[in-house]
Automatic annotation (TrEMBL), chains A, B, C, D:
Official protein name in the record: ATP-dependent 6-phosphofructokinase
Name of the gene this protein is made from: pfkA
Keyword entries, A-Z: Allosteric enzyme, ATP-binding, Cytoplasm, Glycolysis, Kinase, Magnesium, Metal-binding, Nucleotide-binding, Transferase
Binding annotation for Mg(2+): D107
Organism from which the protein derives: Flavobacterium agri
GO cellular component: 6-phosphofructokinase complex
Lineage of the organism: Bacteria, Pseudomonadati, Bacteroidota, Flavobacteriia, Flavobacteriales
Amino acid sequence: MSKTIKRIGVLTSGGDSPGMNAAIRSVVRTCAYHNIECVGIYRGYQGMIEGDFKEMGPRSVNNIVNKGGTILKSARSKDFMTPEGRQKAFSNIQKAGIDSLVVIGGDGSFTGAEVFNSEFNIPIMGIPGTIDNDIYGTSFTLGYDTALNTVVEVIDKIRDTASSHNRLFFVEVMGRDAGHIALNAGIGAGAEEILIPEEDLGLERLLDSLKKSKASGKSSSIVVIAEGDKIGKNVFELKDYVEANLPEYDVRVSVLGHMQRGGAPTCFDRVLASRLGVKAVESLIEGKSNFMVGILGDKITLTPIDQAIKGHSEIDRELLKVADIMST
Amino acid sequence: MSKTIKRIGVLTSGGDSPGMNAAIRSVVRTCAYHNIECVGIYRGYQGMIEGDFKEMGPRSVNNIVNKGGTILKSARSKDFMTPEGRQKAFSNIQKAGIDSLVVIGGDGSFTGAEVFNSEFNIPIMGIPGTIDNDIYGTSFTLGYDTALNTVVEVIDKIRDTASSHNRLFFVEVMGRDAGHIALNAGIGAGAEEILIPEEDLGLERLLDSLKKSKASGKSSSIVVIAEGDKIGKNVFELKDYVEANLPEYDVRVSVLGHMQRGGAPTCFDRVLASRLGVKAVESLIEGKSNFMVGILGDKITLTPIDQAIKGHSEIDRELLKVADIMST
Amino acid sequence: MSKTIKRIGVLTSGGDSPGMNAAIRSVVRTCAYHNIECVGIYRGYQGMIEGDFKEMGPRSVNNIVNKGGTILKSARSKDFMTPEGRQKAFSNIQKAGIDSLVVIGGDGSFTGAEVFNSEFNIPIMGIPGTIDNDIYGTSFTLGYDTALNTVVEVIDKIRDTASSHNRLFFVEVMGRDAGHIALNAGIGAGAEEILIPEEDLGLERLLDSLKKSKASGKSSSIVVIAEGDKIGKNVFELKDYVEANLPEYDVRVSVLGHMQRGGAPTCFDRVLASRLGVKAVESLIEGKSNFMVGILGDKITLTPIDQAIKGHSEIDRELLKVADIMST
Amino acid sequence: MSKTIKRIGVLTSGGDSPGMNAAIRSVVRTCAYHNIECVGIYRGYQGMIEGDFKEMGPRSVNNIVNKGGTILKSARSKDFMTPEGRQKAFSNIQKAGIDSLVVIGGDGSFTGAEVFNSEFNIPIMGIPGTIDNDIYGTSFTLGYDTALNTVVEVIDKIRDTASSHNRLFFVEVMGRDAGHIALNAGIGAGAEEILIPEEDLGLERLLDSLKKSKASGKSSSIVVIAEGDKIGKNVFELKDYVEANLPEYDVRVSVLGHMQRGGAPTCFDRVLASRLGVKAVESLIEGKSNFMVGILGDKITLTPIDQAIKGHSEIDRELLKVADIMST
């Protein structure tokens, strides 16, 4: 039988994403609601190794539900990849009386948590926090919806210039090896073409599509490109290639970069973070461990964390067709 | 066997909502993609009665994916409630060669479509467009996600003042008889209490909650109130009641009003609109009629339109608990 | 000769406005830059009476340049209107070693500062912080530019609905007895008519203007109304009056309220706050007292604080003409 | 004596900027107000050469006051640099009955207008439209205030990530040879260091400043860099240089690019555009020519267009000091 949970540690790890603060707030307040203590661990696993902890009560998380970034800070920890590092981390949390962990981050962070659990048998629960939406077992990761809105708002601005000057813009967005941001923000922003890692249509198809777009009377075009796309050229080489082959096009490049990771979370991300935090804490209380909380359909669910790590988050093929039709 | 669809009419009806333009664009472009003609009908059913039509091709809907409101305009039509009105509408669309209809609107608009179909046997398909999210058969209506973000952004601003002055704010939001906006935006905005039509907790509970909030060390509070709540007092009477009973509170009221219906749609609403438009047109092509397209889980679905009209969109009770825990 | 300044107290008083935090940050960092100590006084004059102080260094004001509200909180203090209250306040700041004050607020706050200076001979400097822009001696008060943008963004959303439904909206904005917000935001939002306290055109002119607007082919209209306007009817009575006299109009009312006071300050307000804070502290160091810092033209200036209090901030009559032409 | 103006042509030229549409609207409606005809010329001087004109009345410019870009489109025209091109342009406008021109653009566009006036004696009036604020004779160009807000909003987001990860970000902003955007947005966004073309402090000073920043306890830093800065390295080389010399820093680069040119204009830009349009048209009516309208202090002014072209827009040195103090 599982031991009673008395004191939960919470940390954020990996790249930050909007909604992490809302998730921290939810974990802290759910602990308070159930009369469990809560300890914030700074800078992810590195702070665990350095013993950088802080007691947290419901008032510690006032006015953060709408803040981007993470008040607990985040870091990538090389030390935690060594047995010595993890041993030190475990000693620190033992000393601090922490008996279970909620880890907010991506699959790298979950892998760390799983290893830590296997070595020291401390209950862990994962909350998926990354803008890339590349995690199996949840339809939405924290920060993804916010990033989509950041991207479409920026492309809306770029389109003002594109259509004033009859230009073609290549806009590179984040997503690591996943095309979720590119595909959804591309549809949302009305892109004429979308290049994603999951679907290499080749350079010929891009040229064809741009020719067709011009012929159909469109005066300006936006092509959204995922950073991990497989077309074999980076976005600047692509510009040169298109200008060489389609001299009627005046191409500009915009690499959106880190702004996509920040900003006040959308309502969706705030509500999702609140729900996931409640589920994570209550699942630990119920004696569960080694799960990732997530949302599938409209329901908050648990996925074994090793499945979340190994599984692959697929793009929705229906959206490829929608994107194609929308660029008519 | 169903006749072949050649010429689709599209209209928006009832209160406008962000995403309606993206849905119009999707209907128009899906028609073009499948070599079907498309006719825009202005001002909903009233424009049908007055023969206010416009031929639409893929270039007619350039640069509207990100615009609030509806380029086809909307109206409520009393004439369409009479058999004479509907007969006139039918004559007009017959003359215009329109052989099927996509109706973007709420349940009132769907009722009109259903009656029209029953009388004249013209295939119809509904797309749920309303910020209230009060339609059975879809987890999200067009405009709802945008409205939630509008509301939380405004409450974020109000909270700046609330916490600078240690005040209590009552914020009234839209939603007709449904508490979806209030409940979700309330959680998203970190409201201390949320009053919705589906759950009348009574005035005592409100006072208790505010007392507890003060005692817990919170220096400011936001109470979100759905316009259709059942607490028996309007928001201004509620202010007076709370000030009379809890003199330690300095209460302000803000009625958000119509701004909630406007604004550029979020990425979510734009993608949803694009998907629903494709499904609506392709379903007509497949010979289907009398359905509402919607999203359930992550899938685009069809719900018989009479079920969509009669069914009741329930709030998620899990969210009530989450709201309660978050206000700890 | 003036004594050397060693320790400055800073407070915010009256209604909060965006940019107050940026001004606090500027005062604190300018003190640090000149090796002067700085003390934050909470809740305005009331905190002075209660001795609610906090030592502030450059790191105390990290990450607040973009936050609405005021981290020092604000309040209206009845006690400070009594000689006993002010005596107590003076004792507290003497005990705390505070030898001069920067007061961020409106004319009421400046009046308090002036009285305090006259009684206890402590050097004071005022920074104009209010969204109303109703202070003599500065072309812009802190928060005014932000409030204008908040208002036009909201009216942009309302216009989506107005033009989708061919409706008339009355939008009431803040400004106390001044029409600055209404006049500028009205022009910015493309209002058909603007009602301000400084110019009572009468009800007949409003009706005429609305008739002309309809006749000119406008399908929707926005009328912006300052809260202090002198037309003799509140905004709801105005709606009834117009509907009674112009039945072709379907009128809606939106009272924007407190959201206008909050939100992240615009770049203009952040830069202005930074400049005013530097000038306030450096003026105290130079031995000056009893001035309000402000901006006239492009220059940061000093205005004797009694002039700032007694003087009247006029609207720019050129803008009335521009508003009139723009509604053609 | 000057001829009576009967028919004004209006065009936008050069890079687009937010507020151009509001200026077009103002020109069109001021013409209508004074019973003068107005013709829109598409794609700047190129459209003049190609005779791409459109009659404009007050309803042609409905609902554009809040739109970025330019409905008249913009282009750079090589043909207009030849006498033959300009002769053709003149023939076209003569045929169209256009007797005077309002040119909205930057100094390149004004140079074209001045040459055209000297050759064909057609009255011209310039309105400064560029985000760079690099035009002599006006404190603000159209679009500059909007661009500043776009930049600070993006840097606010980047700072979320910077402070969550204790990182240093180099953010490159627009401005051609002028540091206005970098300097003002840098102060507004709380940048630790700002590199502008007008002030080359050298690489040593940058390193010193970053060392000091670290020593002072700042956990993250933003350096804003104008695209035309003179430090001798591009932003990516600068990153390498700093990482080589200050290994304690983990540097990221963000080049904001074209998004800075788009978006809905701020209230300030909308009001300024409205005022400048009125002044431009009324000055032509009064028989004036060869001026640029602008704003100096709070007043709308006229500057001889050759001075506007040759003059140099200086940065405000006071702001350099403010920036320095703010980074304490």
